[in-house]
Amino acid sequence: MHDAVVVALRETLGKVTGFIYPNELELQWSILIVLYPYLTGLVAGAFILASLERVFNVKVLKPTYRLSLLTALAFLVIAPLPLQVHLGHPERSFNILFTPNPTSAMAMFGFVYLWYLMAVLLLEIWLDYRKDIVGWADSDPSWLKRLIYKVMTLGVFKPTAKSFEIDDKVGRALTVIGLPSAILLHGYVGFIFGSIKANPWWSTPLMPIIFLFSAMASGIAGVLLLYMFLCWARDVEIEMPCLDTVAKYFLTAVIIAFSLEMLETVQKAYEAEEHFDILQLLIEGKLYLSLIVVQVWLGSLMPILLVGLTQLFELPDKVRKVFYAVSGSLSLVGIFAMRWNVVVGGQFFSKSLMGFTTYKLELAGREGLFSAFVISILPLVVLGVLLWLLPPWEKKPAKA
Amino acid sequence: MKDIEHLVRVAVIFLTAIAFFLVARAMIKPPDYGKLGRYRAGALDDIKALPVKYAGQASCAGCHKAQAKEKAGSSHRGMACESCHGALAAHAAAPKGPKPSKPSEAEMRRFCLRCHEASVSRPAKFPTVDDSKHNPDVACSMCHKPHAPKL
Question: For labeling, which of A353, A365, A391, B9 is most exposed (least CB within 10 Å)?
Answer without folding.
Answer: A365
